[in-house]
Amino acid sequence: GLGVPPWYADTPGVAQVLSMNPNSDEFRKSWNRLRQVYSTRHTTNAHSDFQKDTELLSKRLNSVTFQVIHAQKNPHLRYWDALLMLLISFTTVLQPYEVAFTLHPIFGYLNLAMDFIFLADTLLQFNIAYYDTVMAKTVMVHRAIARHYLTNSFAVDMLASLPYQAILWGLGHHQFDKSDPGFIVDSARLWSFLGLLRLLRLLRAPRLMSRMERLYSIDHGMLSILTFVMQTFLLAHFSACLWGLAPVIQGVVYGQGEGEAASDHGVPHFMSQGQYSYCLYFAVMTLTSVGYGDIYPLTSFERWLSMCFMLCGAYFFGYVIGSITNTVSIRNHAQNFFYETMDKLQAFVEEHQVNQDLRTRLRSYFIYRYKSDAAGGVSWNEIFDLMSPSLKQEVAKNTCARWISNVSFFKGCEEDFIVRLSLSLHPETFTPREKIITLGEESNRMYVVRQGVVASEGRIFISGGVIGLDMLTNLYIMSASIRNYEGIALTFCNVMRCDRQHVLEILDKFPNTSATLRHTIIRHVFQSEIRSYSRAVVRMITGKRSVHARLMGDPSGREEHYYKKLLELSPESDVAALQETLLAARAPPPLDMAPQKTRRGTNHPP
């Protein structure tokens, strides 16, 4: 009753596949095999059963409770990642402060809520696909994802996600009062350090950032500078909290442990919320090697801790200064290249004694190149050449292919042909009043305007416009025709050049498109010839060209050709008779034939 054909003996039956666990790899393999066999070999009689069974299988496959999440394709995962980054930042700042100083009890409930959120994220990682660098593909199988996660970062994520606040409450430590001197000497004080394990959540940040880099446009130079600023703040914050923990770690109350008065230390006997400013002040002063001396270490532990602060500050700020200098230098690469180019240009014009007008035009050209999207002398082709062939086609499909597909000649052509043609385009830049198309050149090139304004054939072309379409009409003749029109850049223009030879080479690989394009070109040429002949006839009869013909010009020269031929073939008497007939038809009617006006204001002939 399942409609299984006789040749289906070596393939699992539909009933067998339905009985499998939809979460298993065996079910997915059997389902894929079943789909492939039916799609290539099913008969007409089994078609209806196949449709019903495949719908049931698809519903079963889609009814899995936990679907594999593709990090780049799932629209909700990016919001979850943003929430986790916010909570990681909050934990990084709050947790050291909570261990060293006293917080409001409400923060305990906030920590408990964040613990459960990170615990939920740990479970979610078993359903997020990962990219296998060895196999060069995205893994979408639950078992492989779980194995990869368990052998890599599961232990650290789980350790950072445990509900430590609930554990502390279970042990009877509902709130640690750091302002109580008895807490400092109590052995239970060490339980307050348990929450520091939450700082392991920082290890999730690189994984989240790698996913965000694929989804969002990030200025990496600015990101590096912001990272250095955040690292500086975190180093000072961690140092201040560690300095505040010094009496807790030692278990010593100042004025009692070493016989020194608290006033000599510059801080009270115990730490409190108000003392964070003192600790941060000492940390920044020590890290930057200022050392005013108003707050200083008393015990040996504090002296060793201060020396660590000094060494860390020296190494860290040396690293930061060098990294920021390198980042600024990289960010200004385009500007430095521009300055170097302008210096070379200045030396060139001085050596060759270039006149002032040409110097101004040259400087304007390179300044425009720097400010345009081809800034700094780095053409977009340099980025384009680094892409794989498939990515090149995707990018071309979303950029130049949109302009080319708007050309009437390419309507109905294959999409692959449009993409290949887009890949053959070459960028060029022209200055104002520079000729893109010169009079008398062969029609071997066509141009797509990317930026700027171009005047050609009596028309104005802006971004997306195409000039030099007569190149297409000459594709199927032995030699290109001569152009009797010009194309002039009215502003600075970036155009994409398409060569006739490249089009012919691409058409050889697409015979169907070649036939379609040939038919379109022949129809266009026929219509153009009819229009040119009609304008020549009107010009011969009236003795002048129409307003539309004067505005559009005669780029192909066909109107002038037909006009001369008509003058040669038509006798002057025939031309004069046609002109008299036309004048008679345009003459006003006699007065007695003028229309009469009725009472209602309508005109009726007498």
From TrEMBL:
Region named Disordered: 586-606
Superkingdom to which the source organism belongs: Eukaryota
Gene3D superfamilies reported for this sequence: 1.10.287.70, Helix hairpin bin, Jelly Rolls
Assigned GO CC terms: monoatomic ion channel complex; plasma membrane
Residue ranges of every copy of the Cyclic nucleotide-binding domain listed in the record: 409-507
Any one GO MF annotation of this record: voltage-gated potassium channel activity
GO biological process, one term: regulation of membrane potential
Keywords: Ion channel, Ion transport, Membrane, Potassium, Potassium channel, Potassium transport, Transmembrane, Transmembrane helix, Transport, Voltage-gated channel
Transmembrane feature ranges: 109-128, 149-171, 183-200, 221-246, 275-292, 304-322
InterPro entries per record: cNMP-bd_dom, cNMP-bd_dom_sf, Ion_trans_dom, K_chnl_volt-dep_EAG/ELK/ERG, KCNH_animal-type, RmlC-like_jellyroll
SUPFAM superfamilies: cAMP-binding domain-like (SSF51206), Voltage-gated potassium channels (SSF81324)
Keyword tRNA processing attributed: no
Membrane topology: Multi-pass membrane protein
Biased segments, Basic residues type: 597-606
Intracellular or extracellular location(s): Membrane
Record protein name field: Cyclic nucleotide-binding domain-containing protein
The organism of origin for this protein: Tetraselmis chuii
